[in-house]
Amino acid sequence: MKKAVILPSRTEVMAKFFAAWQPVRQTEIIPTAQACGRVLAADAVARCDKPVVRASRMDGVGLRASAFADGIPDASGWRLGVDYCRADTGDDFPDEFDAVVVIEDVAMLPDGGLVFDPDMDGPIVSGWNVVTQGSFIRRGAVIGKRGAKLAADTLAALCIGAIDTVEVYKKPLAAFIPTGSELVPLGTVPQRGQSVDSNSVMAANMLAEMGADVAPYPVVRDNRDELSAALDRALAECDVVVINAGTSKGGEDYCHELLEKGTLIAHGVAAYPGKPIALAILGGKPVINVAGPPAACFNGLDWCVRPIIGAYIEAPALVRRTVRATLSERVDADKTGVMEAIVRIKLTETPEGYSAFPIAHTNRHATDALLADGMYVTKIPPEPTEKGDEITVEILR
Questions:
Q1: Per residue in 92-139, pLDDT tens?
Q2: Which listed site, 11, 109, 232, 383, has its alpha carbon 20 to 30 Å from 96?
Q3: What is the pLDDT of residues 35-68, one digit of tens each?
Q4: Residue 62 buriedness (CB in 10 A; 0-12 / 13-18 / 19+)
Q5: Which of 121, 118, 81, 119 has its CA nearest to residue 101?
Q6: Where is 327: in which H helix or E strand?
Q7: What domains sit in the chain, N to C, each tagged with a CATH number?
Q8: pTM above 0.90, yes or no
Q9: Rounded to an integer, what distance in angstroms lies between the CA atom of residue 267 and that of residue 367?
């Protein structure tokens, strides 16, 4: 009886890879308005105070606090611009006025005079409802820290500090090379023996979401010379190369052989779908050969390629939201207890909580698997995964 091959875990594969490879990071300066989703390579420092001088804390009228020295004054004869001014939230206002009374405590007369509410808040003193220079932001203050991933609201904070450009990590250029003589491009109605190249669309969007610029390559047939030429071109043009399919034991699976030209880190991992993934370093660049089935391709991109892209831009590790759910069917996990099963899960919310239905990753269920709500990774050694057991599900959408 042939002895079973013990494959390394996903954690072991990535540890071995990063022990052999580190990215050459580059930075660039780009307009703040175009920096959503990018990672700061240097602290972003405010270029101005906020407020620049001072500002009203509330919507109201600016006036002289001295007018209230003996109580609420008769302001029926006051004139706008002479005895008071409008000073709404965030407004600068003339220096001659040093306090703001909220608009709810003021009635404006037709001729421009004012009447103050006798129950108004007080006492009105210099600085009442006035925010001082730099009380929100001080010039030179760090608004965005190095390593922070910029979101839309973060950009607004940078703009308040007059930060119009930021230094960010330059995106790596990632090639995705689909392979398979049976593949036809999207837009083609497949004939007998053909399949639409769906993984290129998935990979391009996943790589972009990870923080890479994407270089899509056309489908390459299962031909050693054509595959080798495509790999050489991608290595010359890109920072990371992802080859799809041709990594298992099929009669036309040549791709993984090409990785042996460099430093082969692993061929095979103790997790499925996607077990035959291969990972190597060629010319100092990562080359990852992910398996062909869509769910397997997703898994390879998710756990293997994602941290590699993240290393170029110092992106924090992805932490997905999780929920606890009760299995409505048993999970067909690895019976030997030496491999992880990455199981797609359909979730249903019930009065008692979430119910989890495991979806097989076979071709017959490929579309259902891709539409699943989440995924569950079985443990080594296995934990109970029978109907009625509770599991932790990572939410995918």
A1: 999 999 999 999 999 999 999 999 999 998 789 999 999 999 988 999
A2: 109
A3: 999 999 999 999 999 999 999 999 999 999 999 9
A4: buried
A5: 121
A6: strand 322-327
A7: 10-26+170-313 (3.40.980.10), 27-50+137-169 (3.90.105.10), 55-131 (2.170.190.11), 322-395 (2.40.340.10)
A8: no
A9: 27
